[in-house]
Design brief:
- It contains four helices and seven strands; from the N terminus they run H-H-E-E-E-E-H-E-H-E-E.
- By secondary structure, it is α/β, with parallel strands linked by helices.
- A five-stranded mixed beta sheet has the order 4-3-2-5-6, covered by helices on one side. It has a two-stranded parallel sheet with strand order 1-7.
- A hairpin with a 2-residue loop joins strand 2 and strand 3.
């Protein structure tokens, strides 16, 4: 009769010193990396519009962004103003007017204007007039709440 070797190997009992009690961290690292990638992708989508320092106001009423509003930002680039449509920089005021008219023709929507607090009124005025001339309704100027009176 011929005996199999595998039956001899499996009959031996392991000593306690041979048992490994290490934690397998590979699945944990995989999950953390997937969550990190998801967080990085979603974080970029959370902030809308160009980030500019906004004027501070008291008695601030906050309206939550529903994702459907148009965001126009006006940032300061040296002595001149730069116009941004959401996160896309526009070349000049005529390009802004054209894009605004096209967008409002497709679907009229509320609009937020985020202007840099360091800009002069004369830098922001042409953009506001272009918005008015295009016939935009429900235009709001974005501000940042001042926590306490100074």
């Amino acid at each position: 009769m011929h005996r199999h070797r595998t039956s001899l190997v499996h009959t031996k009992k392991k000593a306690l010193a041979e048992v490994r009690s290490d934690i397998n961290v590979t699945p944990l690292v995989d999950v953390c990396l997937v969550l990190l990638i998801i967080f990085m992708v979603v974080l970029d989508k959370l902030a809308r519009g160009k980030d500019v320092p906004l004027p501070k106001t008291l008695h601030h009423t906050e309206k939550r962004d529903n994702g459907d509003d148009l965001i126009v930002s006006i940032s300061r680039d040296g002595s001149r103003a730069q116009i941004w449509w959401d996160r896309d920089q526009l070349a000049d005021l005529p390009a802004f007017k054209q894009r605004l008219e096209d967008e409002l023709r497709r679907k009229p929507r509320p609009m937020y204007v985020k202007a840099d607090a360091d800009l002069t009124y004369g830098s922001v005025y042409p953009v506001l007039m272009a918005i008015h001339d295009a016939g935009a309704n429900m235009v709001q100027l974005a501000t940042q709440e001042q926590k306490e009176a100074q």
